[in-house]
Amino acid sequence: MTASVTVAIPVRDGGPLLAGTLAALARQSVEHELLVCDSGSRDDSMGVARSHGARVLQITPAQFSHGGTRNLLVSEARGERVALLTQDAEPADERWLERL
Question: Which side of the chain, N or C, has fewer Cβ within a 10 Å radius?
């Protein structure tokens, strides 16, 4: 069964903040697809995202734009609904996605 919600995150060198956001997403009460678009990270952001079950898209830094990258994430999402986050926006609790 496919999750009805996709959580989509643009990332570049997310570091520990990304890891915290992904850990908080793993505790959500709603099943969801995790979709990350990496724009040239030099740290292990892609590996961290994959270790949390994310499907990872890759673009070059030159291809990044705030609107364009988010449009790409939405177009690639498999869920009926998409929640967009930033790499450092850690959900406050495990019911954040459910309440949306």
Answer: N
- The answer to whether 80 and 5 are in contact (CB under 8 A) is yes
pLDDT tens figures, 69-78: 999 999 999 9
CB 77 within 8 A of CB 6: yes
Residue 97 has, within 13 A of its CA and on its CB side, a CA count of 27
3-state secondary structure 9-58: EEECCCHHHHHHHHHHHHCCCCCCEEEEEECCCCCCHHHHHHHCCCEEEE
Pairwise CA distance, residues 73 & 48, whole Å: 18
Q: Look at the block and give the residue holding tokens 């990350």.
A: 36
H/E stretch holding 66: helix 66-76
